[in-house]
Amino acid sequence: MDKINNIAETSNHQQYLDRMTTSFSVSSKRLIPLYITGKKVLDVGCGSGVLMKELLSYRPNIDIMGIDINKKTVEYCIAQGLNVKCGTLDDLEEKFDTIIFSSVLHELSSYADDNLRFTVLPIINALQRAYQLLNPNGTIIIRDGLKGSEEYMTITAKSDKEINAFIKYMRENPIFCNPQYNVDGMFITTTEKIIKEFLFTYTWGEESYSRELNEQYGILTVDEWKKVVEYCKLTISATTISAEEYAKYLYASFSKKELDKIFAQSTIVLIARKYALE
Question: Are the C-beta atoms of 219 and 126 separated by less than 8 Å?
């Protein structure tokens, strides 16, 4: 918790919240209201509160609560009249019909203790706790990033600015251990996984560098996400793979054709049900 709050203090947190808010209309977050079941809804890691407001607009009669461990984020949401608490899933006891993890499970992994950081265990722990808080026949909605492959590829930058940013990213990044990469003029060659993570970070701009450098957005592949959800005793009822609009933010910096290929599968939306006799 301290790690995330400290990052909020050292980065442009308001800009981060504003970007989160404006991204709703152009992302797969728009699918989430379609899958809400029941009346009591929990938005885990609610951020700027934009999803909560959209859900209330879509279904005014739901009883929705948000939870986030970032104090500034919670204050921001409360100021907008939203029901948001500061804490984690372990601080809750009440039951819910729908629990939403929108672009948050990768953060639980990214900010976990060092021995668990960038592993799947924090994600499993969160889903198992959510299962305990979910009413029978309830729904868990997951929206998160997709990990790139280990295949090598090349992306073409349009200026030294992008090349220097990539080199800085690789030197300072805590995610990858002894990565193999090559920079030749305007060409960057390394695994798709590394290029994808670099580009995810680069879309947020230098102002958010201190925050995004600490996160790995693509923790799991499509198949790995499905296996994790099923391991947590949930039944998958729908899966959507989205390109999102990450590429368009980078057309001025990198080859459009290469960007479109890299981001063709960038985000997954998984709908899982708790079919249990309890």
Answer: no
DSSP state of 252: T
DSSP string, 58-85: H-TT-EEEEEES-HHHHHHHHHTT--EE
- Nearest-angstrom CA–CA distance, 27 and 31: 9
DSSP E strands, the chain: 40-44, 63-68, 84-86, 96-102, 134-145, 152-156, 182-184, 187-191, 235-242, 267-273
List C-alpha distances in Å: 114 to 174, 190, 222.
Answer: 10, 25, 25
CA pair distance 240, 145, nearest whole angstrom: 12
Distance of alpha carbon 82 from alpha carbon 42, whole angstroms: 12
Task: Give the model confidence (pLDDT) of 111-161 as tens digits.
Answer: 999 899 999 999 999 999 999 999 999 999 999 999 999 999 999 999 999
Q: Residue 77: pLDDT above 60?
A: yes
